[in-house]
Amino acid sequence: MEEFVQHFINGIGLGSIYALIAIGYTMVYGILQLINFAHSDVYMVGAFLGYYMGQLISKWNIVPLPSYSAFFMSLVGAMAGCALLGLTIERFAYRPLRNAAKLNALITAIGVSLFLEYAGQIVFGADPKVFPNLLEDSDVYTSESGNIRITQFDLVILAVSLCLLFILNFIIYKTKLGKAMRATSFNSTWASLMGIPIDRIISMTFVIGSSLAAAGGILVGIKYPKIEPLMGMMIGLKAFVAAVLGGIGNLTGAVIGALIMGLAEQFVVGYISSTYRDALAFGILILILLFKPAGLLGKFGVEKV
Amino acid sequence: MKRLALITALTLVFSIACTKKDKASDTGVVQGDEILVGEYGSLTGSEATFGIMTNKGISLAIKQVNAAGGVKGKKLKVITLDDQGKSEEAATAVTKLITQNKVIAVLGEVASSRSLAAAPIAQQYKVPMISPSSTNPKVTEVGDYIFRVCFIDPFQGTVMAKFAADNLKAKKVAILTDVKSDYSTGLATFFKETFVKLGGEIVVEQSYQSGDIDFKGQLTSIKTAKPDAIFVPGYYTEVGLIARQARQLGLKQPLMGGDGWDSTKLYEIGKDAINGGYFSNHYTTESTDPAVQKFIADFKAEYGEVPDGLAAMGYDAAKVLIDALNRSTELSPKALRDAIAQTKDFPGVTGKISINEQRNAVKAAVVVQVDGARNRYVTTVNP
What we know:
The structure holds two protein chains of two kinds.
Chain A: H1 2-32, H2 39-59, H3 68-94, H4 102-123, E1 129-130, E2 139-142, E3 149-151, H5 152-174, H6 176-186, H7 188-193, H8 198-223, E4 226-227, H9 232-246, H10 251-272, H11 277-291
Antiparallel strand pairs in A: 1-4, 2-3
Helix pairs in contact in A: 1-5, 1-8, 1-9, 1-10, 2-3, 2-4, 2-8, 2-9, 3-8, 5-6, 5-8, 6-8, 9-10, 9-11, 10-11
Chain B: H1 2-22, E1 34-41, H2 48-67, E2 75-82, H3 87-99, E3 105-107, H4 112-124, E4 129-131, H5 138-141, E5 146-148, H6 153-166, E6 172-178, H7 182-197, E7 201-208, H8 216-225, E8 229-231, H9 236-248, E9 255-257, H10 264-270, E10 278-281, H11 290-303, H12 309-327, H13 333-341, E11 346-348, E12 351-355, E13 361-362, E14 365-371, E15 374-381
Parallel strand pairs in B: 1-2, 1-3, 3-4, 4-5, 6-7, 6-8, 8-9, 9-10
Antiparallel strand pairs in B: 10-14, 11-12, 12-13, 14-15
Helix pairs in contact in B: 2-12, 3-4, 6-7, 9-10, 12-13
């Protein structure tokens, strides 16, 4: 039982990181019907921005390391940097192709992804970097037998993810911008007829999605302090799968899908076989899609010809 | 018209490429006053420190021999290609070294998976290849032109199994293997064999893939099995993270591993969590042997850092090659191969090297303990 609880805690920790990245995929898809493959590399850039922020903070002695202020400074810095990156990618790579065939934009997304990965290898160096110690880890809770442990990292990751998701929810459902986003997602032609500046709304979508990816990068950095330019590949794939699992285009679905992925992976490792970790996690995806082709919360739309 | 010009140009390029290929039959026979030696390694990529340190070791050995007059009146020159830590790149690099640069011999790689990708090419062109530190047995089984100057996995696995049973008095051990790596699975297999023979028990076997960052699931299962020690025969990047997560889950058992742990990054990533871990290695900087101390002093003077085991292996691989070049009857790959095969009791910095019939080196291993950024000598295990 205790082992089960520990696997559950591990799974939630992993799942909440997947969630932050999955949201970026699902938001862009919801509005543009574009799978933004470069998203996982924005996440990588986010982790590296955090790495450099951490180094600057300790070099100029702005705040002591490790501390919450250092963590939040890096978090905000990386999110701002990635927001800018997302804006740039949208402006120069995707906007010119707005009216081209869907496939062209998809190929461009793959191109941007590869560009970021290999530019990262040149700029950051291909060898793994050790993420600075932004936050001290300690046990927050230990069960009497010592078999269940919750560390500060687990809590911080969950808290930051929840906070960001809450803010996102607020933006989408309570602000004018959110309303415009939902309208664009529903039908962009009609939205523009109603006077919604489509281009600006799409840019904002990229800004929000990219800054969430950056937050994911920092959280992964503090928990697993090894970052490298290709770190986005696998985690990006899993987050994408999580988004599809939950019903791509649906925000709540992405979060639920991500948590399912995180938990499934941990339980597969714990009770079946660690070798089949990814295989079985993706197998679950196939199963769910067999019975619910649009994902758990996705709406199945019949395309009218 | 434009098209005609293009076709003519293509035909020209093609015919030049073809004539170049025809010359490949005389690979590696030295004609000028320089002896070209090829080296391929992971100068970038996730195991970059392996390639960089090996390269430094090799360069030092070559520099020293050139300063002393070279081999048979000729200077040695190393051509180094980066394989980015990818098997397919390793194969390309070795093909290029042999067919284009026409090297007399190839040095490399550290990782067994990459050596295994490159070895068939060296064998096909009949150019001797010496791997400094690929410990998987299959590497030299590729053919009679493939050598190594390190011990092999069965030995390394055996050493750690003996160490766990005799020194740590462990009865129950958990194994966490990198299933993507020939090196890691090899070590795990032989560890298991010996440890069970010595009366121990493997309580749980878990695996991961290189590149993974989350190991908590595996470690939670290991924790439930309550082992006395955990054997993690992986590479330093993952081992550092594994150590951290093990401590986060409250696992206090000692971690053990092989020479894949040997990098200063291990401590940078693992921090205090990796302290106290044991691993088998090719040599120790704490050796009192004057030859080792001289090598360390020379290396420090050249690069300003302490050589790790892989730098020492690179140095020895180059030294064995130089020794063979000196003894070789003529400067051709064939004669060189025979000379390397006859290497006996060569005094390397990582111990006395003799090449056996399987083209493997027979030598002792040391077990060291991680203590901050340095590794303390614990014991020596003989073959």
